[in-house]
Structure formats: C-alpha cells, structure tokens
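Moderator note: this is an archived Q&A kept for reference. The question asked for a predicted structure of one protein chain; the sequence and the answer are reproduced below.
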Amino acid sequence: MTKPGKQVGYRIEATVISLAGSCHAGHKVGDKFEVDCHDTGGMCGFLYHDIFPALQMLQFGGGYPAERGNPDVMQLECPNRTNVLKIELRRIKQ
C-alpha cells in the first residue's frame, strides 16, 4: 500500500516470532512487514487493536526504561488464546 506524504515518526517493523495454531489473517513465523498508526500492515483488527498503544509509543519516540530491556523493541501477543501469535515490534532508527 502506498502511503501519501511524508513518513510520520519512526518506521516500525513487525516480525512474527511464534505461532501456536493458525492465524486467520494468514501470518506465518518469520513474516516481516511494516506497520504504523495509519496502516495495519495486513494484521487483523483484533491484533492491531491490542498492539496499537505500543505501536504508537514506538512510532512517536517513547519507550520503557532501558532497565526493562531494549526500548526500541517490544514483544506482544494476539488476543486469540487458541491460536496465539507472538509478534515483535522494532523501531527502525535511520
């Protein structure tokens, strides 16, 4: 999907790091795609809704203290507890 205008905030790369079951959106372990507060990157609404606060924080420069781990990376899970998909969001600093 082509995004009009200038990139707002940092670019965020999402990587599917594990999947227990199957993802109805078709994601597989190892899938990588860009996502931001204006583009779901093909994620279903349930996952996008759950990760949105973390996505917003990463895209616009926020982060947890370094003592809690890398402030540019977060791992989150899909709310579907039967088919748990785990995703990593990574802020791309260029």
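Archived answer notes: The CA atoms of residues 8 and 59 lie 8 Å apart.
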